[in-house]
Q: What sequence folds into this?
């Protein structure tokens, strides 16, 4: 079981050259690359590059939203669900979607759970509240859906915010990214179910049709 009371996303601003690892130029994707880092022992990715590419095909206005996005990384870090990194000198960005503990069960801080409760319920995640946190028992399908429909879109919201604010001081931060992700969740859920299957009804059976 993963105990992760501070489970959340993170943003960073870095100077200097972007470091590239395991660089690949996926077919049909121009202007950015998709990378995969090997997870640490006891952890695994709930996404594949193929999942990511199939999901990107569903995102409205992807060409506009992905401007100046340099990398999307299936990351090895397990401290955060996702991470948005802006490279100030180059004015480009990377999005990291990180590995999960192998059994996919985790304890989540009550505050984080409460702010995402509607999403967890719509994905069919089973959970029990404890004195300090909420034990969420994700299936692989539910973890995949949460990472794509919410975490990835949250980090993309940070990128969209950065694009819009590039001639202004600062960005609108977590509130904007969360609103962006929540609006896209409602907009994209039916298309997601059509391609990946309904995560609330999948119990380990792969129903993806891409």
A:
């Amino acid at each position: 079981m993963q105990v992760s009371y501070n489970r959340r996303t993170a943003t960073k601003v870095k100077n200097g050259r972007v470091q590239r690892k395991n660089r690949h130029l996926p077919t049909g994707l121009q202007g950015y690359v998709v990378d995969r880092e090997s997870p640490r022992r006891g952890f695994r990715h709930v996404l594949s590059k193929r999942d990511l590419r199939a999901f990107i095909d569903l995102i409205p206005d992807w060409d506009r939203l992905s401007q100046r996005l340099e990398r999307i990384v299936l990351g090895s870090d397990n401290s955060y669900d996702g991470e948005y990194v802006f490279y100030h000198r180059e004015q480009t960005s990377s999005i990291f979607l990180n590995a999960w503990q192998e059994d996919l069960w985790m304890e989540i801080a009550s505050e984080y759970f409460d702010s995402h409760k509607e999403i967890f319920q719509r994905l069919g995640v089973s959970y029990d509240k404890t004195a300090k946190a909420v034990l969420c028992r994700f299936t692989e399908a539910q973890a995949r859906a949460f990472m794509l429909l919410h975490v990835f879109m949250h980090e993309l919201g940070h990128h969209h915010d950065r694009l819009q604010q590039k001639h202004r001081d600062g960005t609108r931060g977590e509130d904007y990214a969360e609103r962006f992700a929540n609006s896209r969740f409602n907009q994209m859920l039916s298309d997601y179910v059509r391609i990946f299957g309904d995560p609330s009804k999948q119990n380990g059976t792969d129903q993806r049709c891409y």
Summary: Residues 1-7, 12-29 have pLDDT under 50 and may be disordered. DSSP finds five helices and eleven strands in the chain. Helices lie at 49-56, 62-65, 110-123, 140-164, 173-196. The radius of gyration is 17 Å.
